[in-house]
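A quick aside before the break. I want you to see a complete sequence-to-structure record at least once, exactly as it would be stored in a machine-readable document. Don't worry about memorizing anything.
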Amino acid sequence: MPIVKIISGDQAGRFTEINTPEFTIGRDPDCHWQVDLPSVSRHHARIYSANGEWRIQDLASANGTKRNGKEVADSVLMDGDRVLIGDIPVLFENVDRVAAAAAPLVTDEAEIQATVREMSRRTKLIESEISKAIIGQKQVILQLLTAIISNGHVLMIGMPGLAKTLMIRTLADVLDLQFRRIQFTPDLMPSDITGTDVLEVDEKTGHKEYRFIKGPIFTNILLADEINRTPPKTQAALLEAMQEHRVTASGHTYQLAPPFFVLATQNPLEQEGTYPLPEAQLDRFMFSVYIDYPTEAEEETIAKVTTGQRQVDLQKVLTGMEILKLQEVVRSMPVAEHVVKYATRLVRATRPADERAPDFIKKWIHCGAGPRASQFLVIAAKANAVIDGRLLVTAEDVRTAARAVLRHRMFTNFTADSEGMDTDKIVQKLVATISEPGENDY
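That is the input. The structure line, written in tokens, reads:
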């Protein structure tokens, strides 16, 4: 549950839990949190829950209530906000925000079936809306949707001008999610992503304190544009957020409001002045998606419709809460042991030292995929079934996700490079070679 904590002064460190939908603060003994200090009114402010969010309201106090340095009458409260009650600085921490998002939202089998059927209809609507702004690339859009309802991140690799940024921005609009973009450059600093502390001085009292200004990472969809153009030190600023959905800065931890996704882009051609992504960073991306050139017919359409006057009116199809519900449905989907065995077998076959590894893996690969690949293959197979409106997860769903999950988790050796073999071609050959489990495997 959320807490409020005094962060400076004689009572620094004192905190209390907000365990009721309406929580009052003031000097009066009837208040939920009694703060017996002269600058605090008898009934100073209240924190209350409304429409799934927390808000703070000033109760006509003598000295007013401020949120992040600005006087408020009634305002939304976000995790990490600093509130001034009179002259008492208080930190609001919604410590259970992510835990609540991870709690089971859907347990009834009939509701799961209804949600899966509805998702199939919504998928067609999403494709229809995105097609207003993006010509073609339907397979890429489906892969993005698969990752989003799987609660995964995506690395998008494609040549300049293939609408990678526009595609992500359009998807954020259609999904009714907050969107922010960071252009990664060599001089970008970690604090430019996560946020920074600034010194604030109260002009009336002369009181000084540091306040954390949240960076662009505090959003729903973060576009990390040309992520390989910044040094590893700055790339690493994303690691904690991608894995644990939180940010640690200046000794404080701030939870990211769900849903949260990192969609990064990378130019495969121009490598001068770039920094390859560390293996640990690559492994945190659920999918690596390749964006190819459009077909001739699609390119003719692009040239025609984008060179004239046109306005695109996008309709919202999914909300953040609906996406969280879909993520729970994906997690709740049953999956046969046969499918799990097949996904695990595929991943283990990418490791040259494994007994199941084909000869071409031993010849071309020096390091294969880790256990996270098996997890992502299974969850992606479930999500693919949900998007298709099916309750049955099959080995074909695993094969559909294999290239996007495995291509960035395998590392070629000199032999492969000299023979022009990349990991995408090797994964395709692997999928064609590794058979599904048979009767003797049980």
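Two observations worth writing down. Residues 247 and 253 are 6 Å apart (CA to CA). The mean pLDDT is 85. We'll return to this after the break.
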